[in-house]
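Supplementary Text 2. Reproducibility record for the structural model of the 396-residue chain.

All settings were left at their defaults, and a single model was retained for analysis rather than an ensemble. We include the record here because the model underlies the residue-level annotations in Supplementary Table 4.
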Amino acid sequence: MTETASRGQTLRQLGPTVYLPSAVYSIGQGAVAPVIVLTATGLGASPAAAAVVAGLLGLGQISGSLPAGVLISRAGERRTMLLAAGLAVPALVACMLAPNVLVLGAAVMLFGVCFSAWGLSRLSYLTEAVRPELRARAMSTLGGVGRIGTFGGPFLGAGAMHLAGLDGAYLVAITAVSLAALVLVISPPVPHDRAPVPGAERPGLFTIIRAHRHTLRTLGSGVLLVGALRSSRQIIVPLWGASLGLDPATIGLIYGVSGGIDMLLFYPAGKIMDRFGRRWAAVPAMTLLGLAHLLLPLAGNAWGLAAAALLMGFGNGFSAGLVMTLGADASPSVGRAEFLGAWRLCSDLGQGGGPLLIGAVTAVASLTAAALTMGGAGLLAAGLLYRWIKPRQLYG
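Retained model, structure tokens:
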């Protein structure tokens, strides 16, 4: 990773200002994600209510996308990230000390809003900080370090919980978010990471959305399905393992190996997109995810489930940075942050809707029907992305 980026920076030089704080922040999210349900049940919530509380993390991300885009446009990326971290710490403290489920739910949702603002700020910065021919590698690396942090967070949280109970996971997250903010503060400022000139004319959020409604309606539909497929694999693999009667340790091992494959592919995925075009990663990624879901009903034992999960890992790995790259490609120079907020909303809606679709189809029909439905969605996503991604084009 020695390619020279614009403004005289290389991807490696972006590490201290972009990748390191993002990885550390993601550790915090990864540490708390598995324990939200446990905290809710510990406060007396039923399993269904605890699942709703956990879902508020995604709802916070969805509701934070558009406001975050407006805030970035007016305050700049750096200030938005510091504000997000500054609100995330008390949100995590509230999760840890919540006296009831209502307070916990509100704190979880606030943390989701903060995570959305943080991630969108990094996307907005990288869109302008690197040359178009390096964009996919920059975005896939950002997605990769986030996945590494999210993968490692639960292990750090588990170690802390061994010493301090559930509070240990929240303490890990508080420490990670605080360290990420500290790294951001001590890192040298970047030229465009400043608030716009006061009094400058800015297009409104809905003006930007109307101006780019065709892109959001067409390519955004494909991105929505990408989000649904990504969230589906997190739900359907454990559910299928449970239906086979596998013990939790085996299911966790299968899911972990799949996640490991996923993490290893982020940079090759970006390089493929930069060298051959976005289609060459997007279409195979969604095809593999779709086929893996379609093959899932044939998995009658742990080995079959492991094969399907590994195929999902390959597919998801090849999509690393895809949504961010496509959003950066399509974003306008004027109103960029607002557009990216709307773009991220498309993906977040898919990520939130995927588990709901699986639950609805399973309730009405069966888990097999849910797997086949998501498999069809994967193939549809591949078709939409092939149709609407321009072949071998670099974007400025």
